[in-house]
Specification:
There is one protein chain. It contains eleven helices and 18 strands. Helix 1 runs parallel beside helix 3 (97-107). A hairpin with a 5-residue loop joins strand 13 (188-191) and strand 14 (197-204). It is 31% helix and 24% strand. The radius of gyration is 21 Å and the shape is globular. The protein has helices at 13-24, 49-54, 97-107, 148-153, 174-178, 220-233, 283-300, 306-320, 326-331, 336-347, 350-362, and strands at residues 2-9, 29-32, 46-47, 68-70, 72-77, 82-86, 92-94, 111-113, 121-124, 127-130, 134-141, 162-171, 188-191, 197-204, 207-214, 246-251, 261-262, 265-267. Strands 1, 2, 8, 9, 10, 11, 17 and 18 form an eight-stranded mixed β-sheet that branches. It has a seven-stranded mixed β-sheet with strand order 6-5-13-14-15-12-16, sandwiched between helices. It has a three-stranded antiparallel β-sheet with strand order 3-7-4. With 379 residues, the chain is of the alpha/beta class.
Length: 379
């Protein structure tokens, strides 16, 4: 039977960031993933400079990979007034998850077991037996919203408030590129009329990503179709999508009752429900939770009890706990119709679009990069 100190289930940004930090500290780590890399992943696909800093990603990443500088945003409501916000330098970067995830997982230094889903997880003494083949003292659940480790840790959790989304990403033909008014350096974000979700249109070189997410899945397909029709009607795109949008779901921070710490177990990223509340963006919270989980595991010095790993919970609370936005507080006190009208009015305001929507909700520009340099440890 193979043995290691830690098995991470899921090789996305959360799992790879955690493995990278653990390996740098000398913690023998295995990444288990049900797919083979590179693999396609449904995601709008953009990262901020803070993510690059946290993961120490240099200019070499752009070699033969999509790395679209973003210098502004076009925001508004569907069929409402549109505001453009511009910056003199890149404030974010468009990436393809197919490329980004493979880069991170290969760079992590962890042993990678591909095309191997988690089939069984058994607790024996103070260790875990994974699929009857790998013995590990700690398990990290990083398998997204439907992570099997999260289900193992929360077997009785029946219903959760989710964001349901559908999106499509494809390489445009020359004719489609000519018929696309969306600029690569200015992604477009359009909130639904009831403000319970938004649609996006990101152009990354020759690739285009179009999607829409909402706080409920009721009539999601109709909302997506209406959004695409809006993009056609306003001549943002002049063609039908070449493929049917695919669906996925995720949880917003503070909106789940999941337990994400137990003896020898922590959950990170979407498995713990850490997407930003207002934007639903999940890559930066995933990366940061992976690094914080690694910090907790390293500082545990081999004692992976629930009490010892409780520091991870505190790390998350310190990092993400104060993010109750103005709309969350006000929205509980105003009728939905009034809240919707107020939101549409504010979204049409250039100051609000720049200072709140773009810089606070989507870029989190006021939050510096997480600082964590793991020291080598003996475990």
């Amino acid at each position: 039977m193979d043995a290691c100190e830690c098995v991470i289930v899921g090789g996305g940004p959360a799992g790879s960031a955690c493995a990278w930090a653990l390996q740098r500290a000398g913690v023998d780590t295995v990444i288990l993933d049900k797919n083979a890399f590179p693999r396609d992943k449904i995601c709008g696909g953009w990262i901020t400079p803070q993510v690059l800093q946290e993961l120490e990603i240099g200019s070499d990443y752009a070699n033969n990979r999509v790395f679209q500088p973003i210098r502004g945003f076009r925001t508004g409501c569907i069929d409402g007034r549109v505001t453009e916000t511009h910056y003199g330098e890149p404030v974010s970067y468009g990436i393809r998850r197919r490329e980004f995830d493979e880069y991170l997982v290969r760079r992590s230094g962890a042993r990678l077991v591909e095309q191997q889903p988690l089939r069984s997880l058994e607790r024996v003494d103070d260790a875990w037996i994974v699929n009857g083949e790998i013995r590990a003292r700690a398990i990290v659940g990083a398998g997204g919203h439907f992570c099997p480790v999260a289900r193992h840790l929360n077997p009785e959790l029946k219903s959760e408030i989710i964001v349901a989304a559908q999106e499509a990403e494809f390489e445009m033909s020359s004719a489609q590129r000519e018929a696309c008014a969306v600029r690569g350096d200015v992604p477009e974000l359009y909130f639904c009329r009831d403000l319970r979700g938004y649609g996006w249109c990101f152009r990354k070189g020759d690739f285009l990503n179009i999607g829409l997410g909402r706080l409920d899945s009721h009539r999601l397909g109709e909302h997506v179709a209406e959004f695409i029709a809006f993009l056609r009607r306003t001549e943002r795109i002049g063609f039908d999508l070449p493929r049917k949008p695919l669906g996925h779901a995720y949880l917003l921070y503070g909106k789940t009752q999941r337990s994400f710490v137990a003896d020898g177990v922590v959950l990170i990223g979407d498995a713990a429900g850490l997407a930003y509340t207002q934007s639903g963006e999940g890559i930066r919270p995933a990366v940061e939770s992976g690094l914080l989980a690694a910090k907790a595991l390293i500082e545990a010095k081999g004692d992976y009890s629930r009490a010892k790993l409780g520091t991870y919970r505190e790390f998350l609370r310190t990092r993400f706990g104060a993010q109750q936005e103005w709309s969350t507080r006000i929205g509980t006190k105003l009728p939905p119709t009034l809240m919707s009208a107020l939101g549409r009015l504010l979204l049409a305001t250039p100051w609000f679009s720049r200072q709140v929507v773009v810089e606070k909700w989507f870029l989190h520009a006021d939050e510096p990069a997480l600082e964590f340099s793991p020291e080598p440890v003996a475990v």
